[in-house]
Specification:
It is a single chain. The chain is an alpha/beta fold. It has helices at residues 27-39, 53-64, 99-109, 130-138, 172-182, 200-207, 238-250, 269-274, 321-328, 350-360, 391-402, 423-430, and strands spanning 9-11, 18-22, 41-47, 68-72, 75-81, 93-94, 115-119, 142-145, 153-156, 164-166, 188-192, 212-215, 218-222, 231-233, 255-262, 280-289, 292-300, 307-309, 335-337, 365-368, 371-374, 384-385, 408-410. Residues 1-5 have low confidence and may be disordered. Bound molecules: shikimate-3-phosphate. Residues 28, 100, 171-173, 176, 197-198, 318-319, 342 line the site of shikimate-3-phosphate. Shikimate-3-phosphate binds at residues 28, 100, 171-173, 176, 197-198, 318-319, 342.
């Protein structure tokens, strides 16, 4: 792999990928451990905390709310303030690029007896917030949004009442915000999901001593519970590993071992989609770590069938769809997915960004309002990639560059710092 400027990253076609990779802690889980640690009683020590800029945004916001936080490398020590120990921030809270920070923190802020303002960067300022404001207002918070239901969020928190809420969109962030707000309400708050989304919030709530019950698609949490801080280990980030899973499957003669990856069944949708395609993925050494499954993955390249991803699988692979679209070009039958309109309101319009960049590489792709159809057996050509400031687009097309003819240039490549700052370094280590 060539030397690079901080902005443009050059990717050469790979002869093979080999080696062992240890991934940084899961981003979704790190956000939750930090937020729950902040409102628990006593200290919480988090090991393998995510290296992402997004999770740093969460820590910075929590500090602004008066929480004692020390970070030494990837160990974060949080002095829990308890349910009523947060203090108003002197300045607006800045969630940066992180939708998880803005939406989940809104749940905690809704229960505070003070007013908070949460802002974000240009990309986050284009993302819908009504989905989180609506249920929190039903609980009694007063929330003002920017024009069109966009950030900034102005939250006048206070005494909350429990609600039963049927989720109109499949969103773990919104579900989590309601459950977090439910901690501050007197009585039982219930969230009903149409399709299951990631359940890390439910797991850590239980681990910290909250009273939480899940039956079918309903999750109930009892308010005013005492949460107890504790020592926690964050599993490696499967959504970051996904780029190397796909790279190892499609680059020739590859053999990768991915260590200590989170295998929570609400996150392993990508493995479920890949298995029937004939993907050579072996899961070994599975164990449980503070309620989360973790294990190693062995990846070998080989032929992949492709096919149509059922709509019901989409919420479970929402962050993996860009890289799966890249994989689709290297399959026998191509890859189609629908029911993924949510991708249009992620860090970028990911359906448009994937289609545009696949076309830049000479690939055939059809864009639907809610999905993509990518033809199989395609030859990709090295191209200049515009990631639209979206980390997952930059990483997906770096992987595409490994199997392209000729060199690929990823513009503004430092956007990968949002979730995976070491991505290019690891890629250059395992790619020959
Ligand atoms: C996340 C949930 C998903 C996902 C995001 C992280 C989380 O978003 O896309 O990267 O940590 O709960 P939605 O819940 O909005 O679908």
């Amino acid at each position: 792999m060539g030397l690079f400027s901080p902005k443009t990253q050059k990717i050469k076609p790979a002869k093979n990928l080999t080696g062992t990779i240890q991934f940084p802690g899961d981003k979704s889980i790190s956000h939750r451990y930090a937020m729950l640690g902040a409102i628990a009683e006593g200290p919480t020590e988090i090991h393998f905390f995510s290296t992402s800029a997004d999770c740093q945004s969460t820590l910075t916001c929590l500090k602004q709310l008066g929480v004692g936080i020390e970070r030494k490398d990837n160990v974060v020590l949080i002095q829990g303030a308890g349910l009523s120990g947060l203090r108003p921030a002197a300045q607006p809270l800045n969630a940066g690029n992180s939708g998880s920070t803005m939406r989940m923190l809104a749940g905690i802020l809704a229960g505070q007896p003070f007013r908070s303002v949460v802002v974000g960067d240009a990309s986050l300022s284009r993302r819908p917030m009504m989905r989180v404001a609506a249920p929190l207002e039903l609980m009694g918070a007063r929330i003002k949004l920017g024009e069109g239901g966009l950030p900034p969020l102005e939250i006048e928190g206070g005494v909350l009442k429990p609600i039963r809420y049927e989720m109109p969109v499949a969103s773990a962030q919104v579900k989590s915000a309601i459950l977090l707000a439910g901690l501050f309400a007197e009585g039982e708050t219930e969230v009903v999901e149409k399709v299951q989304t990631r359940d890390h919030t439910e797991i850590i709530l239980e681990q910290m001593g909250a009273s939480i019950g899940c039956y079918h698609r309903t999750i109930a949490v009892r308010g005013r519970a005492r949460l107890t801080g504790r020592k926690l280990h964050v599993p490696g980030d499967l959504s970051s590993a996904a780029f190397f899973i796909v790279a190892g499957l499609i680059a020739p003669d590859s053999n990768l071992v991915l260590h200590n990856v989170g295998l929570n069944p609400t996150r392993t949708g990508i493995l479920d989609v890949l298995a029937p395609m004939g993907a050579r993925v072996k899961v070994v050494n599975v164990e449980m770590l503070n309620g989360e499954l973790i294990g190693n993955l062995h990846i070998e390249s080989g032929p992949l069938r492709g096919g149509e991803i059922p709509e019901s699988a989409v919420p479970g692979i929402i962050d993996e769809l860009p890289i799966l679209a890249v994989l689709g070009t290297q399959t026998e039958e191509g890859l189609t997915f629908r029911g993924a309109a949510e991708l249009r309101v992620k860090e970028s319009d990911r359906l448009a960004a994937v289609a545009e960049n696949l076309r830049r590489m000479g690939a055939e792709v059809e864009e639907f309002p809610d999905g993509l159809r990518v033809a199989g057996r395609q030859t990709l050509h090295g191209a200049e990639i515009d990631p639209h400031d979206d980390h997952r687009i930059a990483m997906a097309f770096a992987v595409a560059g490994l199997v392209a003819h000729g060199g690929t240039e990823i513009k503004n490549s430092s956007c990968v710092d949002i979730s995976f700052p070491d991505f290019f370094e690891i890629l250059s280590r395992v790619a020959d």
